[in-house]
Amino acid sequence: MPIRWGILGAGRIAHKFIQDLLTLPGIATGEVELYAVASSSAERAAEFAAQYGIPHQFGTYDGLLTLPDLDVVYVATPHVQHHENALMCLNNGIAVLGEKPFAMNVAQVREMVDIARSRKVFLMEALWSRFIPGIVAALELIESGAIGKVTMVKADFGFKAPFLPERRLFNKALGGGALLDIGIYPLFLAYLVLGKPATLKASATFGTTGVDEQCGMVLTYPDGQIALLDSTLIAQTETAAVIYGDNGYIKLHSRFQDTRGITIKSGDEEPRTLTFDRDTFGYAYEAQHVVDCLRDGLTESPIWSLDDSLNLMELLDAARAEAGITYE
């Protein structure tokens, strides 16, 4: 039987994900099927379905629940709806790949995780960066001792977004702001490389709509390491990351969260660059991983676990508390 995918939300990120999903080998063989799309707008759902040849379309999110043979849903709705949409699917036995941030706070994530585990339904946060080959290679190099003991992580993510108060980025009611939208990536990298910190300090600046337009974080670790992280919606930054060790460094080229190249300097060796070309946006790797997990009967990923998602959301909550970032 094919793995049948449903898509919840028909916005920009859903289009990118679907275009990558359609490159999976299982699509050509019939082992993976793009089966349904649901949107809050019947018109958008119809347009989306027509564009990608999707057989089932719904103008309400719960329309997906009428399909008894739906296997997994990709949740690509606004941040504030992730929790509700994921629970809707999980409570009906449908596996979920949920866009980041997984939910609005750790209490919501914990409820999602508890339900998924109690019902034995697959659930994973769509932290696509964890599956990007360049980041996987960087982790392998670190684990091999190529740069010695890691001492510092520096990462930034910034772009100058058009000021559209009614749209998600600058709209507090939709969970907008720099930290949850893009600051999650530097924080994710620090967690991936160094684990949970001993201390986290954060500061933010706020715009006229009340969202954090910039957010900076400093994390310290029990063994003396440090992470310097920042995000901004009002300036273009390099959006690169450097992982320093006591015997070299690894630079993740821009944009680091879906990097196509890394440079490594190990000891006295000359720096060398590794490239990871691809024809996709980068979402195909996480999509294939979900398919593999479902084929193997797993209920959570062994690579990006639900405990990892809980830990990351705890750090986001801590950063929000430190910086004074609040939502209704």
TrEMBL record:
State the source organism's domain of life: Bacteria
UniProt-listed SUPFAM superfamilies: Glyceraldehyde-3-phosphate dehydrogenase-like, C-terminal domain, NAD(P)-binding Rossmann-fold domains
Query: Record's InterPro entries?
Result: Gfo/Idh/MocA-like_OxRdtase_N (IPR000683), Gfo/Idh/MocA_domain (IPR050984), GFO_IDH_MocA-like_dom (IPR055170), NAD(P)-bd_dom_sf (IPR036291)
Q: Which residues cross the membrane?
A: 173-194
Pfam families tied to this protein: GFO_IDH_MocA, GFO_IDH_MocA_C3
What keywords is this UniProt entry annotated with? Membrane, Oxidoreductase, Transmembrane, Transmembrane helix
The Gfo/Idh/MocA-like oxidoreductase N-terminal domain extends over 3-124
Q: Which residues form a coiled coil?
A: none
Q: Which residues form the GFO/IDH/MocA-like oxidoreductase domain?
A: 137-250
MF annotations from Gene Ontology: nucleotide binding; oxidoreductase activity
Family statement drawn from the similarity comment of this UniProt entry: Belongs to the Gfo/Idh/MocA family.
Q: What PANTHER family does the database record attribute to this sequence?
A: OXIDOREDUCTASES, TRANS-1,2-DIHYDROBENZENE-1,2-DIOL DEHYDROGENASE
Q: What is the protein's given name?
A: Oxidoreductase domain protein
Origin species: Fibrisoma limi BUZ 3
